[in-house]
Amino acid sequence: MATNALKYSCIYHHHHHIHTSLRRPIHYLPTTNNSFFLRPTTAHSQLPHSATFAVSSASASTYLNDVSLDLLKQHLSSNNFREADEETRRLLIVLAGDAAEKRGYVFFSEVQFISEQDLKTIDGLWRQHSDNKFGYSVQKRIWKKVNKDFTKFFIRVGWMKKLESSEVEQYNYRSFPTEFMWEMEESIPEGHLPLTNALRGTQLLNSIFNHPAFHMDEEEQEEDDVLGKEERPLRNRAFNTNYTF
């Protein structure tokens, strides 16, 4: 019965996520900082696919196609990871193009319109200010280590939690935002942030992971494979390993 309950819970969340990822806009937290919602000064289709990435000075500015990353840098350098997560989500919408901006969220098919350099720069800021603990490239490495199984990935990065009252190991989704972790502590799982897609199914996140920005060369892949083979499971878990979102 416990296994069936988990299966039912996962199926319910699967349909819920796919539905919301296609129809419901991303919700932003209230803010009094109007610059949080600044838009690019020129149309996305006219912008060059290049970025200026300057982080050596506190006064240096970082831009993606005329979209400033200063607010993201400010949040990350101050360890305001919840605000940094919201700003990252906003940047993805802006960089995905005019249609995504008008809609208020990104279709997974629009990720291809975000330049390789733009995603690398955002990812680089996350890694720089988290000692390589957070970022899309970190999340992709974990996803590959669990054989691209999103259920295992969600558990690994802490987006699902164990139900303590169960006789066997069962997991459910964390409630946003109170049950997610926003402080840089030793207990926070690697790859926990940015959330971006934790509440919206897996299609968008899958498109980000498969974006050319995060394609690794053969040496990195071989090294990753070796590390994966050295890993050993901590213990057996009672969840359906064949389940995919």
From TrEMBL:
* Entries under InterPro entries matching the protein: GUN4-like, GUN4-like_sf
In its UniProt record, a GO molecular function of this protein is:
tetrapyrrole binding
Q: Which Pfam families match?
A: GUN4
Report the record's Gene Ontology biological process terms: chloroplast-nucleus signaling pathway
Q: Name one GO cellular component term.
A: chloroplast
Task: Tell me which Gene3D superfamilies the record gives.
Answer: 1.25.40.620, Gun4-like (1.10.10.1770)
GUN4-like domain segment(s): 67-212
Q: Which PANTHER family match?
A: TETRAPYRROLE-BINDING PROTEIN, CHLOROPLASTIC
Q: What is this protein called?
A: GUN4-like domain-containing protein
Species this protein is from = Buddleja alternifolia
The organism's lineage is: Eukaryota, Viridiplantae, Streptophyta, Embryophyta, Tracheophyta
